[in-house]
Amino acid sequence: MADPYPRNAPDPFYVANDCCITCGVPVDIAPELFSWDERIEYPGHCFVSRQPANNAEVDLMLEVMKCAEVDCLRYRGDDRALRGRLAQEGHNNQCE
Protein backbone atom coordinates (compact mmCIF):
# COMPACT_ATOMS: atom_id res chain seq x y z
CA MET A 1 0.00 0.00 0.00
CA ALA A 2 1.30 3.44 -0.90
CA ASP A 3 1.66 6.05 1.80
CA PRO A 4 -1.04 8.74 1.32
CA TYR A 5 -0.07 12.38 1.10
CA PRO A 6 -1.04 13.89 4.50
CA ARG A 7 -3.50 16.50 3.18
CA ASN A 8 -5.74 14.10 1.21
CA ALA A 9 -9.43 14.11 2.07
CA PRO A 10 -10.30 10.85 3.88
CA ASP A 11 -10.76 7.71 1.71
CA PRO A 12 -11.19 6.14 -0.78
CA PHE A 13 -9.20 8.08 -3.44
CA TYR A 14 -5.83 9.58 -2.52
CA VAL A 15 -2.60 10.89 -4.00
CA ALA A 16 0.44 8.93 -2.88
CA ASN A 17 3.00 10.80 -0.80
CA ASP A 18 6.12 11.99 -2.63
CA CYS A 19 4.71 10.80 -5.96
CA CYS A 20 3.47 14.06 -7.46
CA ILE A 21 5.65 15.45 -10.25
CA THR A 22 3.54 18.63 -10.59
CA CYS A 23 2.17 17.55 -13.97
CA GLY A 24 -0.99 19.57 -13.32
CA VAL A 25 -3.32 16.91 -14.74
CA PRO A 26 -5.46 16.32 -11.63
CA VAL A 27 -6.08 20.01 -10.97
CA ASP A 28 -6.72 20.69 -14.67
CA ILE A 29 -9.23 17.84 -15.09
CA ALA A 30 -10.98 18.01 -11.72
CA PRO A 31 -10.24 21.32 -9.93
CA GLU A 32 -13.21 20.75 -7.65
CA LEU A 33 -11.63 17.52 -6.35
CA PHE A 34 -7.89 18.35 -6.28
CA SER A 35 -5.77 21.14 -4.84
CA TRP A 36 -2.12 22.16 -4.71
CA ASP A 37 -0.19 22.25 -1.49
CA GLU A 38 1.86 25.43 -1.60
CA ARG A 39 3.42 25.13 1.85
CA ILE A 40 7.19 25.53 1.87
CA GLU A 41 7.83 21.94 2.95
CA TYR A 42 5.64 20.53 0.13
CA PRO A 43 5.89 22.93 -2.80
CA GLY A 44 3.51 22.04 -5.59
CA HIS A 45 2.32 18.62 -4.36
CA CYS A 46 -1.28 17.89 -5.42
CA PHE A 47 -3.81 16.11 -3.21
CA VAL A 48 -7.44 15.01 -3.16
CA SER A 49 -9.15 17.95 -1.48
CA ARG A 50 -12.64 16.45 -1.75
CA GLN A 51 -13.86 12.94 -2.48
CA PRO A 52 -16.26 12.45 -5.42
CA ALA A 53 -19.91 12.90 -4.47
CA ASN A 54 -21.57 11.44 -7.57
CA ASN A 55 -20.93 9.29 -10.64
CA ALA A 56 -19.83 12.24 -12.76
CA GLU A 57 -17.13 13.07 -10.21
CA VAL A 58 -16.02 9.43 -10.03
CA ASP A 59 -15.67 9.62 -13.82
CA LEU A 60 -13.40 12.64 -13.34
CA MET A 61 -11.23 10.66 -10.92
CA LEU A 62 -10.92 7.88 -13.50
CA GLU A 63 -10.06 10.44 -16.18
CA VAL A 64 -7.25 11.71 -13.94
CA MET A 65 -5.98 8.13 -13.54
CA LYS A 66 -6.06 7.73 -17.32
CA CYS A 67 -4.32 11.01 -18.18
CA ALA A 68 -1.80 11.53 -15.38
CA GLU A 69 1.83 10.99 -16.26
CA VAL A 70 2.49 8.81 -13.19
CA ASP A 71 0.25 6.52 -11.11
CA CYS A 72 -0.02 8.77 -8.04
CA LEU A 73 -3.82 8.66 -7.75
CA ARG A 74 -4.83 5.52 -5.87
CA TYR A 75 -8.09 3.84 -4.83
CA ARG A 76 -8.44 1.89 -1.57
CA GLY A 77 -12.21 1.60 -1.37
CA ASP A 78 -14.29 -1.55 -1.38
CA ASP A 79 -16.81 -0.77 -4.14
CA ARG A 80 -16.63 -3.95 -6.25
CA ALA A 81 -18.18 -2.35 -9.33
CA LEU A 82 -15.69 0.50 -9.23
CA ARG A 83 -12.78 -1.89 -8.67
CA GLY A 84 -13.96 -3.88 -11.68
CA ARG A 85 -14.17 -0.74 -13.77
CA LEU A 86 -10.67 0.31 -12.70
CA ALA A 87 -9.33 -3.13 -13.63
CA GLN A 88 -11.14 -3.04 -16.99
CA GLU A 89 -9.64 0.37 -17.75
CA GLY A 90 -6.13 -0.80 -16.86
CA HIS A 91 -5.79 0.79 -13.44
CA ASN A 92 -5.80 -2.34 -11.30
CA ASN A 93 -2.25 -1.49 -10.18
CA GLN A 94 -3.65 1.68 -8.59
CA CYS A 95 -6.07 -0.24 -6.34
CA GLU A 96 -5.29 -1.59 -2.91
Description:
The protein has three helices and four strands. The strands form two sheets. Strands 1-4 form a two-stranded antiparallel sheet. The chain has helices spanning 25-29, 55-67, 80-88, and strands spanning 13-15, 34-37, 45-48, 73-75. The radius of gyration is 12 Å and the shape is globular. It is an alpha+beta fold.
Class from secondary-structure proportions: alpha+beta
Strand line-up in the sheet with most strands: 1-4
Number of strands: 4
SS field, number of helical segments: 3
Residue windows where pLDDT falls under 50 for at least 5 positions: none
> Would you list the SSEs in sequence order as H and E?
EHEEHEH
Beta-sheet strand percentage?
Answer: 5-15%
Shape: globular
How would a textbook summarize the main sheet? Answer: 2 strands, antiparallel
Oligomer: single chain
- Percentage of residues assigned to helices: 25-40%
N-to-C CA distance = 6 Å
The Cα radius of gyration reads 12 Å
Instruction: Write down the overall mean pLDDT.
Output: 91
Topology:
Blueprint: E1 13-15, H1 25-29, E2 34-37, E3 45-48, H2 55-67, E4 73-75, H3 80-88
Antiparallel strand pairs: 1-4, 2-3
Keywords:
96 residues, alpha+beta, two-stranded antiparallel ribbon, two-stranded antiparallel sheet
Would you kindly provide a brief summary of this structure?
The chain is α+β, with helices and mostly antiparallel strands and 96 residues long. The protein has helices spanning 25-29, 55-67, 80-88, and strands spanning 13-15, 34-37, 45-48, 73-75.
